[in-house]
Design a protein that fits this description.
The protein has 12 helices and 25 strands. Strand 15 and strand 16 form a beta hairpin. 29% of the residues lie in helices and 26% in strands. By secondary structure, it is an alpha+beta fold. It has a 6-stranded mixed barrel with strand order 7-8-13-10-12-11. The protein has a 6-stranded mixed sheet with strand order 19-22-23-17-24-25, sandwiched between helices. A 4-stranded antiparallel sheet has the order 2-1-4-3, with no helix packed on it. The protein is elongated and about 130 Å long. It folds into 4 domains: 52 residues, no CATH class; 180 residues, no CATH class; 161 residues, Rossmann fold (3-Layer(aba) Sandwich), CATH 3.40.50; 73 residues, no CATH class.
């Protein structure tokens, strides 16, 4: 029998006393009682040895085997350990962590229990090597590893537990025994084959968890008592009510703390999200501003228009007007609306719900099948033709600028006077002869006033960009100071600068007393310009709303027919 094979023994030789630990002696964890004292005699190498077993109570005291193990499903903290340490009757309290893991060692897999290296409760005994000094070093089970394994590496394999550790590889620097495992069995596990092959002891810093899996207690009343005595049982039983109540209280506090931490984390995350969103929106706005500046060649500042809420004098009215009411998309059914002087009435709706037909009817391009159309002077308009409507004071920005707004092969100047070719200002003999000098002068004036970008007013309208084509139409229609302006998709396909110019002109006409009917598929445009908003769905009016603080949700539902 070699000295390293003895556990819990006192070896006497020539008056020299050496304390050793007896391997295999159990304190009852495996159902084996530690006897009080055993005397053995053996002879080895011609020398006599007297072997005296260390009493069970002394062994327990030497290793500071725990009296109570506290666990909580929510985990335990250092605050909890300090709390229990301060209870009357508790001699010491130490938090610990234990995690089952699978590891690779020497190209073989094994299942181990990782335990916190303790210096107060459940003290391990070093049998070979040294104690760990770093988080990536460990003590290995002396029953499962040998001195030949010192310096070798254990590698954690189970991905599911990798986040439990700050390291994934540990160097074995020592072999040890722990009072937590005094028998040959190491217990069961849900990993691997279901049986633990051994244990490793790690520095607290090796665990990534910020909580303890258990807290071990030493009680005042158990000191000096035998582990299996009635006095020991009485001391443990006396503390049970206190510890049970305290553990319940700490568990509730831990729950409350976790909830508070979660709320704080959620609040922090929400703030970070809000701050990030605000930063993104600010940067996006800056980027859009920079892009707009580049596109129009100058500093761009989007206007916000004041809404008119008191316009009441009717300039144009439809009463029960219908056009192919049987057609769901492309007809009008009993449409009644009034457009007031000095306001923009916006028509919102998804394309194909009668907007084009409404515009054509209001501008005299279509004759209604029923109902009345009442002009700016309160008189019914009987002849449905563009000329008749022009005579009533209509200005029209049509849906298709190329097909309906301009004659592409004619010059800019010619397009600008299309509605006045029979006037004395620009013709002789009621249109028989055109005054070209007067037309050219007039065209140049409008070009400058409306920022029409061209090389000459004699170039064709077809050669202009979309924005400048729209400016030509707008200049022509607004120069006559119309009583009613019908603007149908007025900024479709235009850049930012041209769009803003058109918007400013529309609002200027409104402020001058003109009634404006705005039809647009751009909902933002309708919201921006309209003093009142009418929703058209499948040829029917779904409702009319104030443009000041409009009920966006209600309008959106109306556009969907809700």
């Amino acid at each position: 029998m070699a000295a390293r094979d003895l556990q819990g023994l006192i070896l006497h030789e020539d008056a020299a006393v050496i304390e050793l630990l007896l391997r295999g002696v159990d304190l009852g964890l495996c159902g084996i009682k530690l006897v009080e004292r055993v005397l053995l005699c053996l002879r080895e190498g011609g020398k006599a040895f007297v072997i005296l077993l260390l009493p069970g109570s002394q062994y327990v005291q030497k290793t500071e085997l725990f009296d109570y193990r506290l666990v909580s499903t929510l985990g335990l903290t250092q605050e909890d350990a300090d709390y229990f340490a301060g209870l009357d009757g508790v001699r010491a309290a130490e938090g610990a962590r234990s995690v089952d893991l699978t590891a690779e060692f020497e190209d073989e897999g094994m299942t181990l229990k990782a335990l916190t290296l303790s210096d107060a409760v459940n003290r391990p005994s070093l049998t070979a090597g040294r104690m760990p000094e770093r988080a990536d070093e460990c003590l290995a089970d002396a029953d499962r590893f040998t001195e030949a394994d010192l310096g070798k590496t254990l590698t954690v394999q189970a991905a599911s537990v990798n986040d439990a550790f700050t390291q994934t590889a540990f160097t074995i620097v020592g072999l040890a025994e722990t009072p937590l495992y005094l028998g040959a069995e190491r217990g069961t596990t849900s990993l691997g084959g279901g049986t633990l092959n051994g244990f490793v002891l790690l520095q607290p810093e090796a665990f990534a968890m910020d909580y303890f899996t258990e807290i071990y207690l030493l009680l005042d009343g158990t000191q000096g008592t035998d582990l299996y005595s009635d006095a020991y049982d009485a001391a443990v039983d006396a503390m049970r009510p206190t510890l049970t109540a305290a553990l319940k209280e700490r568990a509730q506090k831990r729950y409350d703390d976790i909830i508070d931490e979660a709320r704080d984390a959620l609040s922090k995350a929400q703030k970070e999200y809000d701050d990030g969103l605000a930063e993104y929106q600010e940067r996006r706005a800056q980027t859009e501003q920079e892009l707009a500046d580049l596109m129009i060649g100058q500093k761009f500042q989007e206007n916000t228009y004041k809404k008119v809420e008191d316009a009441s004098e009717t300039a144009f009215e439809l009463k029960g007007v219908s056009y192919h009411p049987e057609v769901k998309h492309g007809g009008l059914k009993d449409v009644s609306l009034a457009i007031h002087k000095g306001e923009v009435l916006g028509v919102a709706g998804i394309d194909g719900n009668g907007q084009s037909e409404l515009a054509a009817l209001v501008t005299g391009m279509l004759k209604p099948e029923g109902g009345e159309v009442i002009g700016p002077d309160g008189a019914k308009i009987a002849v449905f033709s563009p000329a008749a409507f022009i005579d009533t004071g209509l200005g029209n920005i049509p849906e298709d600028r190329n097909k309906m707004g301009l004659v592409g092969d004619m010059t800019i100047a010619e397009n600008l006077v299309l509605k006045q070719t029979t006037s004395d200002r620009f013709s002789i003999g009621h249109g028989a002869w055109l005054k070209m000098d007067a037309i050219e002068k007039y065209a140049n004036e409008l070009k400058d006033e409306n920022d029409i970008r061209c090389t000459s007013v004699h170039q064709t309208a077809r050669s202009l960009s979309g924005g400048n084509q729209q400016k030509v139409i707008l200049a022509r229609e607004l120069d006559s100071h119309p009583k009613l302006l019908v603007a149908v998709y007025p900024t479709r396909g235009l850049d930012i600068g041209a769009t803003e110019f058109i918007h400013n002109q529309i609002i200027a006409q409104r402020d001058a007393g003109c009634a404006v009917l705005l039809i647009s598929a751009d909902f933002d445009e309708v919201l921006k310009l309209s003093d009142r908003i009418t929703v058209l769905f499948e040829g029917q009016i779904m409702g009319t709303y104030s443009g000041a603080n409009p009920p966006i949700k209600e309008i959106s539902l109306a556009m969907a027919g809700k």
